UniProtKB/TrEMBL annotation:
<feature type="domain" description="Endo-beta-1,2-glucanase SGL">
    <location>
        <begin position="78"/>
        <end position="526"/>
    </location>
</feature>
<protein>
    <recommendedName>
        <fullName>Endo-beta-1,2-glucanase SGL domain-containing protein</fullName>
    </recommendedName>
</protein>
<dbReference type="Pfam" id="PF26157">
    <property type="entry name" value="SGL_GH162"/>
</dbReference>
<keyword id="KW-0732">Signal</keyword>
<dbReference type="InterPro" id="IPR058773">
    <property type="entry name" value="SGL_GH162"/>
</dbReference>
<feature type="signal peptide">
    <location>
        <begin position="1"/>
        <end position="19"/>
    </location>
</feature>
Length: 527
C-alpha cells in the first residue's frame, strides 16, 4: 500500500499530460467529463485553435446550472432568476425564488435548439444521455404552458404578459412590487422566443409535438391580441412599464384600465425594439400608428466612432451604456440578414474587444450583479452602468467589474475570439464553480459575485448555439412578414449608417490577466 500512492500520482500525472493540448497538434481537446476547473488547462492559443473542443467542455459545466431548484422549478416548469453559491465551497445556497419574462425567453431559446437537434444543446441539458434531452425539455415546456395558463386565469388583467414573478410555488404570482405592473421589454423577448419555439415544434413533427405546438400558439395568439391594448398608447408611445387598473379584472372588462407608469417609454434601438417589431408585424396597427413607432424611436439610433489607444476610428451604433446586454435582439430576430446591420454590429465587437485590450482590462463589460459582500453573504447590488463610456449615451459608468457573459455578442461573430475572452475571465480566482462560470469578478481580482444567473450563463450558451433568429426567419416567411421586417430594419439603419470606418480592424484578444489577490478557488471546483 505504501508504494501505491506515488505510483498513482505518477499515473495521474501522465494522464494529465496526455490530456493537455500539446503545441499545435490537431488532436481533439475536449473531454467527455472535463475537470471542473477546465479553463486553467487551456491556453488562449489552444482556445483559438480548438474552439469546438473548448465549447464541449464549457457546455458540460454550464449545464450543471440547469437543475431543478437551481435554474428552474420542475414542478411548474418556470425559471428561477438564479442562485447564490457558498463563498467557500461553491455549493448552491440561497435561491432567487423569482424570475422574469426575459429569463423565460433564454430558457425557451435554449430549449428550441434542443428540439432542433443541436448536439451542443443536448450536451448542456443532459451530457450523460444526449438522446434524453428532448424529452426533458418537452416535459418542462408542458408544465410551463399550464403554469402560464393558470396565471392568466388568476390574473387576467395581464392579458398573458408576465411581470416579475414569484416562481417557487406551483402557482406563480406577481413578485413583490409587481402587483398591477408589467414591463414591456422583457415580454418582447418572451414573445419572440415563443414564436421561434412554436416554429421548431411544428418543424420537427415526428415526435407528436403538435398538441404542444397548438397550446403554445394559442397562448401566444391570445397574448398578442392584448398587447397593443396593454402597452401601446398611440403616437408611437409604448410603455416601458404599464400600470394595470386591476390585475384581477379581464382585459376587456369596462372597469379595466392601462396606462404608462410615469414618463417611461420603450423607444430604444436595443432590446426594447423587439416589442416594436411585434407591434408592427402582428399588432394590427394602422399605417399611421406603425410609422409613429419608428418616428419615435429614430432619435435614439445614433452613429458614433470609437477611437482609443491607436485603435480606430470604428463606426458603431452608440450604446446606452454599450453594455454586452444591449444587443440581445440579434439573438431572436434575423437582423444580420441585413448587410448594414451585420456590419455595424461586427464593428461593435471590434470596439468591445479592442477597448478592453488597449485599456488593459482583463475582460469585457456588461450590466451584471456586483460582487459578494463576504461578511453578510449578500450580493452588493446590480451594476447597470457598465459598458464603454466613450461610445455610450450614459457616460457615468462603474467599470470595476467584468463578466464572462459580455463575450456573447463577440461569440456570435467569432467563437474563437469571443471564447478567448470568456476563458480569460473564468481563469480568474473563483470564476469557475460546480455549476460552471461565476457571475462576475472585479477587474483587480479583489472579489467575485458568488452567484449563478440565467443572464450571466445562458446568454453565452444561446449565442454559441447561434440564437433563434433562423427559426424566427422561417416562421416570418411562412407568416408573410419577413420582407416587411427586412424593409423596416434596413430602412432604419440605412438612414443612419452608410460608409463604415474600421471594418478592416481585427477583433482583439485579451492582453492581460485578472490578478491573483489571494482569493481561494471554490473548494468543490479547485484546480
Ligand atoms: C386567458 O384568460 C382569459 C380570461 O379568463 C380567457 O378567455 C383566455 O382564453 C385565456 N387564454 C389562454 C391562452 O389561456
Ligand atoms: C459595487 O460594489 C462596490 C463594493 O465592492 C461598491 O463600492 C460599488 O459602489 C458598487 N457599485 C455599484 C454600481 O453599485
Ligand atoms: C442620450 O439620449 C437622450 C434621449 O435620446 C438624448 O436626449 C441625449 O442627448 C443623449 N445623450 C448622449 C450623450 O448621447
Amino acid at each position: 500500500m505504501k508504494f501505491n500512492h506515488p505510483v498513482l500520482t505518477l499515473a495521474a500525472g501522465a494522464l494529465f499530460v496526455n490530456a493537455l493540448p500539446s503545441g499545435s497538434s490537431s488532436k481533439p481537446r475536449g473531454h467527455d467529463a472535463p475537470p471542473c476547473r477546465f479553463a486553467l488547462k487551456w491556453s488562449q492559443e489552444q482556445v483559438l485553435e480548438h474552439t469546438d473542443d473548448f465549447i464541449s467542455d464549457l457546455l458540460y459545466w454550464e449545464g450543471k446550472f440547469h437543475q431543478n431548484d437551481i435554474a428552474y422549478n420542475a414542478e411548474n416548469g418556470m425559471s428561477y432568476d438564479g442562485s447564490q453559491i457558498d463563498w467557500v465551497t461553491g455549493e448552491n445556497t440561497k435561491k432567487h425564488t423569482f424570475s422574469a419574462a426575459s429569463k423565460e425567453a433564454l430558457q425557451i431559446m435554449l430549449y428550441s435548439r434542443v428540439i432542433d437537434g443541436s448536439p451542443e444543446a443536448a450536451r448542456f441539458i443532459s451530457p450523460e444521455n444526449p438522446k434524453g434531452a428532448s424529452g426533458k425539455v418537452i416535459s418542462i415546456m408542458e408544465k410551463k404552458l399550464k403554469t402560464y395558463q393558470r396565471f392568466n386565469e388568476t390574473y387576467p388583467g395581464f392579458g398573458g404578459a408576465l411581470p416579475w414573478i414569484a416562481t417557487s410555488n406551483a402557482d406563480i404570482s406577481p413578485q413583490d412590487g409587481w402587483t398591477n405592473r408589467v414591463p414591456g421589454l422583457d415580454n418582447g423577448e418572451l414573445w419572440w422566443s415563443v414564436y421561434a419555439w412554436i416554429q421548431v415544434l411544428e418543424k420537427v413533427d415526428q415526435h407528436g409535438y403538435q398538441d404542444l405546438a397548438k397550446g403554445w400558439k394559442a397562448w401566444l395568439d391570445y397574448t398578442l391580441t392584448n398587447m397593443v391594448k396593454i402597452f401601446h398608447r398611440g403616437n408611437g408611445v409604448v410603455c416601458a412599464v404599464t400600470e394595470i387598473g386591476d390585475q384581477a379584472l379581464s382585459v376587456d372588462d369596462p372597469a379595466q384600465t392601462y396606462k404608462c407608469e410615469g414618463s417611461g417609454v420603450l423607444n430604444d434601438p436595443y432590446e426594447g425594439e423587439l416589442v416594436a417589431y411585434m407591434f408592427h408585424l402582428f399588432g394590427d396597427l394602422s399605417e399611421e400608428d406603425k410609422d409613429a413607432l419608428w418616428v419615435a424611436k429614430r432619435p435614439q439610433l445614433v452613429k458614433d466612432e470609437y477611437e482609443m489607444g491607436g485603435v480606430g476610428p470604428i463606426t458603431v451604433e452608440r450604446g446606452y451604456w454599450f453594455s454586452g446586454h444591449e444587443p440581445w435582439k440579434v439573438l431572436e430576430l434575423p437582423f444580420y440578414d441585413v448587410d448594414i446591420i451585420r456590419r455595424v454590429y461586427h464593428n461593435a465587437e471590434r470596439a468591445r474587444t479592442c477597448n478592453s485590450a488597449v485599456t488593459k482590462v482583463p475582460g469585457l463589460f456588461a450590466s451584471v450583479n456586483n460582487i459578494t459582500d463576504v461578511e453578510t453573504d449578500t450580493i452588493i447590488g446590480y451594476i447597470s452602468p457598465a459598458g464603454i463610456p466613450s461610445i455610450a449615451n450614459q457616460t457615468e459608468q462603474y467599470l470595476d467589474v467584468i463578466t464572462p457573459y459580455a463575450s456573447w455578442p463577440t461569440i456570435l461573430f467569432d467563437k474563437s475570439v469571443g471564447l478567448a475572452w470568456w476563458r480569460n475571465m473564468v481563469a480568474g480566482k473563483k470564476m469557475q464553480n460546480p455549476f460552471g462560470s461565476t457571475e462576475s469578478t472585479r477587474v483587480d481580482g479583489e472579489g467575485v459575485s458568488a452567484l449563478l444567473t440565467w443572464d450571466s450563463k445562458v446568454l453565452t450558451v444561446v449565442s454559441i448555439l447561434g440564437g433563434v433568429g433562423d427559426l424566427a426567419r422561417e416562421r416570418m416567411q411562412a407568416d408573410g412578414v419577413y420582407n416587411e421586417f427586412i424593409r423596416i430594419a434596413e430602412r432604419e439603419y440605412s438612414m443612419v449608417f452608410g460608409d463604415l470606418k474600421g471594418e478592416d480592424i481585427e477583433l482583439c484578444v485579451p492582453s492581460v490577466q485578472i490578478p491573483d489577490r489571494g482569493l481561494k478557488d471554490f473548494r468543490h471546483c479547485e484546480a
